[in-house]
Amino acid sequence: MLKLSLPTNRQAWLLPAIVFVIAVIVHFLPKPIIDQLIYHRELIAQGEWWRLLTGHFAHTNTNHLLLNLAGLTMLWALHGEHYRHHTYAISITVAALVCSIGMYFLSPDTIRYVGLSGVLHGIFVWGAIKDIHKGWRSGYLLLIGVWAKIAYEQLAGSSADVEKLINARVAIEAHLYGAIGGLLLPLWERVTNRHKPEAESE
Question: Distance of CA 91 to CAs 106, 153, 163, 172, 191, Å?
């Protein structure tokens, strides 16, 4: 399906805009405050569980922030028609938690992590599946494309140019775990929709 207009209704843009603003605000906070927000494996193990969520809103530098904000905006333009306040909030939360928990238990060498890229991969996968449910063939292309990218990263490693740009290692494991979170979201929607009264179903 060729999309010729942007999703400008409030359900589509409000929460992505809030995520956008939060990321910008966090970026300009004093470093001691940011240090209290980032994903830090050892501190999470000591009980600072909020870092599983808040770490995704911090970034290594301005280039890193701008890259992720561009991705956030692109996904709104691509899939915003699927966004609803509650589903988008849950999608962001699930993708963030699956990403962080995946890194914590499966990638113990990842001590520190910041950035929205893992979450964005989850939102991308979820949006592509929503396209498929709508009968749009482009959803299959997007889903195949994002998983091909993730598979390539796992085999070949990350781009040296991107690492130089953001002044940090690209956490390709976060992309994988975030995308897995995106796969779980349609399952959650299917379960919750089963418990809705018929009058409330789409």
Answer: 21, 23, 27, 20, 15
CA 44 to chain CA centroid, nearest Å: 20
Domain spans of the chain?
Answer: 10-191
CA 188 – CA 169 distance, rounded (Å):
32
Q: Tell whether the model's pLDDT for residue 177 goes beyond 80.
A: yes
In angstroms, the CA 82 to CA 134 distance is 10
Q: In sequence order, what are the residues at sequence separation of 6 or more whose Cβ sits closer than 8 angstroms to the Cβ of residue 132? A: 139, 140, 143
pLDDT, position 143? 97
CB under 8 Å to 163, separation ≥6 — which residues?
A: 169, 170
3 state DSSP class of 66: helix
**Fold adopted by 10-191:** Rhomboid-like fold (1.20.1540)
192, 170 contact by CB (below 8 A): no
- Condensed to tens digits (0 to 9), the pLDDT of residues 22-46 reads 999 999 999 999 999 999 999 999 9
Tell me the whole-structure pTM to 2 decimals.
0.92
